[in-house]
Amino acid sequence: MNKGDLIGKCIVVTAGGTQEPIDPVRHIGNRSSGRMGYALAEAARDRGAEVRLITATTSLPDPAGVEVMHVRTTTEMKTAVVEAVTKADALIMAAAVADYQPKTVAKAKIKKESAQSLTIELVRTPDILSEVKGKFLKVGFAAESEDLIANARKKLENKGLDLIVANDITAADSGFDVDTNKVTLIDRKGRVEELPMMSKREVADKVLDRVVGILAEKSS
Ligand code: CTP
After folding, report:
1. Phi, psi (5° rounding) for residue 152?
2. Could you identify which of 115, 139, 201, 209 might form a hypothetical disulfide with 92, taking C-beta atoms 3.0 to 4.6 angstroms apart as the criterion?
3. Span 116-170, pLDDT tens digits
4. With the C-alpha atoms ordered 212, 217, 218, 220, is the resulting torsion angle positive or negative?
């Protein structure tokens, strides 16, 4: 790791868990704390990059020295990403993106009245990583509870990624809402690097080491 190795580069990072509204007071969400994405944004900033952080709702303070855009839904995140990547060298999608959204959003708070059950029809959200196209390098995360490497490889292929960070969310002290993470990095060339448990900031620097390496390979 070199403190200035991202000088002159623009890195777009997404963070947090998107929320899909059901009615004015309720939403579908997930357990993402945003810490991995924020750690990536801060680490990229400290290595000299111009950083754009697109974040779903978190309880974390905006990092200094980073352009922060706040979004709520997957569709809002996609719009912000499409805008931000126009001059980006890399997009790192650390956000936990909702895969489904309610087909319709009730305008008024849903009352329970006498109903004993409620069915909400869900439709797919856009797949941001797959749909956003450009020359920038694409890094995805794979949050898996089984078949970690095989599932992560499939996502790398299907989403056209340069690098995927495979995250076993069933491991203790790894994944959602903790400061540590245990990940395996897999790149397009099939290289697999299993990292020990480390802080999310250390994981962020390991991911950025690979981003620096792949950017150098691409430009040579
Ligand atoms: N992702 C995305 N848009 C979505 C869903 C996911 O851009 N609608 C991104 C995530 O930010 C992550 C990667 O795709 O970098 C993989 O996300 P993950 O939730 O692990 O996988 P999914 O594609 O949602 O597949 P599944 O939930 O079926 O495992």
Report:
1. -65, -40
2. 139
3. 999 999 999 999 999 999 999 999 999 898 999 999 999 999 999 999 999 988 8
4. positive
Dihedral, CA atoms, 8, 71, 81, 210, nearest 10 degrees? 50
Other C-beta atoms within 10 Å of 59: how many? 7
End-to-end CA distance of the chain: 20
* 7: CB partners within 8 A, 6+ apart: 47, 48, 49
| Ligand 1 center–CA 16 separation, angstroms | 13
Q: List the one residue out of 84, 71, 93, 79 whose CA is nearest residue 163.
A: 93
Give, using CA atoms, the residue closest to atom 8 of ligand 1: 127
Side chain identity at residue 29, one-letter code: G
Q: Which ligand 1 atom is nearest residue 165's CA?
A: 15
Rounded distance, CA 160 to CA 143, Å?
17
| 104 CA → ligand 1 middle, Å | 22
Which protein residue's CA is at the shortest distance from atom 21 of ligand 1?
Answer: 142
Residue 41 burial (C-beta neighbours within 10 Å; 0-12, 13-18, 19+): buried
Neighbour tally for 144: CB within 10 Å = 18
pLDDT per residue as tens digits for the range 176-207: 778 899 999 999 999 999 999 999 999 999 99
Find out whether the beta carbon of 215 lies less than 6 Å from any atom of ligand 1.
no
